Amino acid sequence: MKKVLSQLFLILFAQALYAEFPQRNFYFMRHAETQQNHDRVAQGNLDTSLNSTGVKQAKKIARALKNKGITCVITSKLERARVTGEIIARKLGVPLVTFDNLRGRSKGIMNGKPFGEWVQEWKVDKLIIPGAEKSQEFHDRIIGCIQDILMRFPGPILIISHGDTGPALSKETHTHYTKTAINAFPLFFEAPKHDNDTWKVYQVA
């Protein structure tokens, strides 16, 4: 019984600790282009590589972010995000850190399949795909991970993740920005400066 109560206390403590999204400025972008992006194929949590366009995009973004004061680049462990981050971190002269929980939202048996009408229904859980991650499960995972990152790393930092992460961030910060899922499209999330202020999102390059 004591063990159960102890575990419950830890869960409640963690929920209270991360109940509010950390009020810290940060940069965010989706990884650069892969061949699957170009071909409109679902990647989810599959490990795919940048194509030649993606490599060029990452180098261009690295130049655009050169004087933004970024102290660290943090990516998912999937190659397309990690390599995007490696190119940028090398140019900026800052460390790269990877987090498994920044991975893309699994599409289950539809990973590796062409996009179609199924996508929009699946995104809002109107279509159940075997093995796929439900929208709230993904939101809780990705936002919990980013909360942890923002609490642990002094900023500003650059977070590089995947297509569904941007909309989740937009929802969490109530910014409703519509261009968060574009490849290699860096955004600056500016935290509220006072109690009556709101999150703001700006295009960087």
Descriptive report:
This protein has 205 residues and is α/β, with parallel strands linked by helices. It has one domain (25-203): Rossmann fold, CATH 3.40.50.1240. 40% of the residues lie in helices and 13% in strands. It has seven helices and six strands, in the order H-E-H-H-E-H-E-H-H-E-H-E-E. Strands 3-2-4-1-5-6 form a six-stranded mixed sheet, with helices on both faces. The protein is globular, with a radius of gyration of 17 Å. The termini are far apart. Mean pLDDT is 90; it is low at 8-19.
Radius of gyration: 17 Å
Judged by helices, strands and strand pairing, the structural class is: alpha/beta
For the secondary structure, the number of strands is 6
Whole-number tally of structural domains: 1
What's the short story on this structure?
The protein is α/β, with parallel strands linked by helices. The chain has seven helices and six strands; from the N terminus they run αβααβαβααβαββ. The chain has helices at residues 2-17, 35-39, 52-64, 79-92, 118-123, 135-152, 165-173; strands at 26-30, 72-76, 96-99, 157-161, 187-190, 200-203.
